Every structure is written in C-alpha cells, then in structure tokens.
Amino acid sequence: MRVAGLPRPHLSLAQREALWGYGFIAPYVLGFIFFTAYPVAAVFYLGFTDYDALRPPLWVGLNNYIAISSDPTFYKSIFNTVFYVTLAVPGQLLVSFGAALLLNRKIKGVGFWRAVYYLPVVIPYVVSSVFLVWFLDPGVGILKYVLNQVGLPAPLWLLDETWAKPAIVLLSLWYQGSYMIIFLAGLQAIPQQLFEAAEIDGAGPWRKMLLVTIPLLTPTVLFNLVIGIIGSFQVFTFAYIMTGGGPLQSTLFYVYYVYNRAFRFFDMGYAAALASILFVVVLTLTLAVFKWSDRWVYYEGAQAPRGGA
Question: So what's the pLDDT on residue 309?
Fold first, then answer.
C-alpha cells in the first residue's frame, strides 16, 4: 500500500534492480578503467614518444620500434625468455601434475604433505632467491658439497653462462603449489564411476590414466598452460636478485630488460614500446593456444575434440 503524500516511484522493479546491479559492479568497472585499461592505453601511447619521466612526452612516431629492430640486447632478451618459457612451462605442468597424482591418494598424513608442497608459494621470491644463491654457490654451497661427496663435479651454476638459465628454470619448479592445487581439484572432480567402469572393462592403471584421467583433465591442463605461459614471459625477480641479468646477459630476460630501460636509463618511451611488443606477443600466443585447444581439450557434455576420437 502506498503511503499518502509520497510521490509514486517512476522506476519499475526491473529498472531498480538494474540500478542496484550497476551500483554493485561500479567499483570493479571503475577500478578496471583507471588501474588496467588506462595504464595499458598509456603504455601504447608512450611507445610512440620520447619520454624520460621528467619532461612531457614528445611524439616521435615509430622511432622507438625502428630502434628496437636493430637492438642486439632486445634479441638477446627474447632468446633468454623463450629459452626459459620452453623449459619452465612444460616442467611446471609435469611436476605439478605428478605431485597432484601423488597427493590425490587416500593415505595417512596426505593433508600434511599437501601443505608442505604448497608451502613455497607463500614464501616470497626474494627469500627463495637469496637462499638459492647460497645453495648453488660454487665455493661453499650445499649442492657443491653433496656432489663432491658422490664424486661428481659441481657446475658454476649462476656464474656460468651455460648453467645460469637452467638453474633459474629449476628454481621455478619450486613454486608449483598453485598449479598442483588446481590439478588436484580437477582430479577430484572426475566421477569415480568412470574409473569403476574402466576397471570392469579390464583397464589397468595406465589405461585409466590415458583414457579417463587425462582426457577429463584437459580443461585444467589448458588453464594451467595459459597461466604458465603468461607468468613465464614475465619472469623477473629470480634474475634480478640472483644474477642481475648476468653472466654475459645470459639471464637478461625480457621484462628485466624493460625494467632496465625504464628505471635505470629512464628511457620510458623505449620501455613502453618494449612492453607493448610483449603484450601483443603474449596475447597472440594465448589466443593461439585457445584456438589449438579445440583439437585436444574435452568438455563433458560436448562433442569430442576434432583431433581426438
């Protein structure tokens, strides 16, 4: 009943609900515009300018991109980053998937071991990097001592151009707790009836893995693959703390090079152009992975992937 003397509302129930909805999403939309969309647009704009953060940007057109095309350090950073991504992403997927399989068993104390495996995720990268510098030290490091005890020579690791990148790749495998949790959730979402049906048909552990577990886990693999690619292209902290980009620029990864151009040489326009290239490359690779996933990712209730049976 409408109270006498009060004006009749002009908005319908659906319109009022829509306004409430817009009000609830407004903080996120505004945050996205000011803290994501605007910075991205600014980076693309600054890539066409000469800007040192002290003076207003000066439009120079494609000069930064022309300079990048003949920059040997740019190509060196690309090689280092592609090397890291090529080794780190498959390694991360295999290690985290194997750990999830082991931690999916119903054994005593499995909760404790899950927590232990996840623990490195909550340890800051700086702490782990400092520890690994000491652990891999070719003079007094623990690993050198262990290898010497079994009669094996100890590489120079972070001091050797050949071993520095593999050492950082190995360190990246230490931080697979997040991927493991996602794989573990995917494994526990697979209906047990499918495994029981496979056992009735005579399937052993390996055939159940190949015909049930892996096909139903492909959406989870896709998610971890995309996140792994995006994260690996942004590797920075390990090289910054452990090697400073050396020796001989062997660990000068792409984002580290962007950092140097922006905050060591204050060449913000050049760094913005580099960042724009990285954005386009990662976006292109991500879209390519999604396109490729049509051939091997299986979604329950959907048709079989085009590349499968």
Answer: 43
